[in-house]
Design a protein that fits this description.
about 140 residues; alpha/beta; 6 helices; Tyr_Pase_dom; Dual specificity protein phosphatase family protein
Length: about 140
């Protein structure tokens, strides 16, 4: 699990099944971007929201926009949000980068570069395009 801000984290399916990290970071909400469920399942006291979407070229901007909107809404409500996909390398990275770009009034690519400086990630080009488009729409 990678903490980008006090209330925003991202990671992979393995981190999603680690209940200790939910408590360590006081996670209230988990947003799932993949079709997989973690083992063990999410903690009972954490709100789980399924925004599953494909990785790569078949990802649509509408699916991407929905996931970003959910994360923005939950953060606005005061929640600490953990966003995960299968590998923690593409979908979750681009969604949290878009969220930060919107809330901190930055360019999407700049936020993505900031994340790359601290975490080894390699998002799919189609998701980068969708993230950039969603941020420009704001």
């Amino acid at each position: 699990m990678n903490q980008l801000r006090d209330d925003l984290l991202f990671g992979d399916i393995h981190a999603a099944g680690n209940h200790k990290v939910y408590r360590r970071y006081s996670v209230d909400v988990v947003v799932k971007l993949c079709g997989l469920d973690p083992l063990p399942e999410y903690p009972d006291d954490v709100e789980a929201i399924d925004c599953s979407m494909p990785d790569g070229e078949s990802n649509t901007v509408d699916e991407f926009r929905k996931a970003v909107s959910v994360v923005l809404e939950k953060r606005d409500e005061g929640g600490t949000v953990f966003v995960h996909c299968a590998a923690g390398n593409s979908r979750s990275v681009t969604v949290v980068a878009a969220v930060l770009a919107i809330t901190e009034d930055n360019e999407f690519q700049g936020v993505l570069d900031e994340i790359r400086e601290s975490v080894n990630v390699d998002p799919e080009p189609a998701l980068v395009e969708n993230g950039d488009q969603v941020v420009r729409e704001q």
